[in-house]
Amino acid sequence: MKPILLLILTFITIVNCYSQTSEEYFNKGVSKAKLKDYKGAIADYSKAIEINPKVASIYFNRGVSRAKLQDYKNAIIDFNKAIEFNSNDAEAYYIRGLSKAKLQYYQDAISDFSKTIEINHNYAEAYYNRGVAKANLNDNLGAISDFSKAIEVNSKYEEAYYNRGLLKALSGDYKNSITDYNKAIEINPNDAVVYYSRGMSKNKLGLKESGCLDLKKAEKLGSNEATNAIEQLCN
User: Fold this and answer.
1) Most CB atoms closer than 10 Å: which of 140, 149, 160, 191?
2) DSSP alpha helices (H): ranges in 137-173?
């Protein structure tokens, strides 16, 4: 009987030599994700989790890949697990917040962005996206405050200037909206949407000539909205 036992033990040893570790599957997943093979990455992360189900970074990376595929509900489940194992991960809260916002769970998204900011006070994107979520809940003053904070952290944050300008224009503060649009254009001089919005604010203030120049610039950059506005305002 001894030779049989030895044969079985040898066979088990050979099988173990060819098994892959959780880390190896994780690394394969990372490589696939870099190539935008998110489905392949998810399969490898899932295998890594089967082997070692208590590693926050694996759940986090799988959540990111799921979010890339717009599978936001399952991405949130993964970020929940990542946070369970590492409750101080600002990125996990942040991307979970983005996923919730994509599903229009804006209040829950705000909570996650707030947690991100609690962990990292200089997270400009968290302020910005919290502002977007607040704007979607019609809290325009709160949104403007968050866009201003994002700008404090990152003075080159074009989208924050633009959205702050847009909300100011919606409240009838066209003069200050133009100031924000000016800054956005200074950062990115080829954004048709900003030229269009600045042109509309200028027209609201009676600055027809300057406003129409902006609308024509927006049209040149590809804005169909600007074409329609020119027909109505600049003839």
Assistant:
1) 160
2) 140-153, 158-170
Summarize pLDDT for 125-179 with one digit per residue, the tens: 999 999 999 999 999 999 999 999 999 999 999 999 999 999 999 999 999 999 9
Evaluated on CA atoms 10, 24, 64, 69, the torsion sign reads negative
Is 202 within the bounds of a domain?
A: yes
Q: What is the CATH number of the domain that holds 213?
A: 1.25.40.10
In sequence order, which residues have a C-beta less than 8 Å from that of residue 65 and are 6 or more positions away? 29, 33, 38, 41, 42, 45
What type of residue is 13? T
- Which range marks the domain in which residue 229 is found? 161-235
Residue-wise pLDDT for 172-229, tens only, equals 999 999 999 999 999 999 999 999 999 999 999 999 999 999 999 999 999 999 999 9
Tell me the C-alpha distance between 185 and 168, whole Å.
Answer: 17
Which residue matches tokens 């946070």? 83
C-beta of residue 34 within 8 angstroms of C-beta of residue 64: no
In a domain, 53, yes or no: no
174, amino acid identity: Y
Query: pTM value?
Result: 0.89
Residues 54, 58: Cα–Cα separation, whole Å = 9
Closest CA relative to residue 119, chosen from 151, 88, 84, 80 = 88
The number of folded domains in the chain is 1
Q: Is 105 left (phi over 0), alpha (psi -120 to 50) or beta?
A: beta
Closest CA to 218 of 200, 194, 192, 180: 192
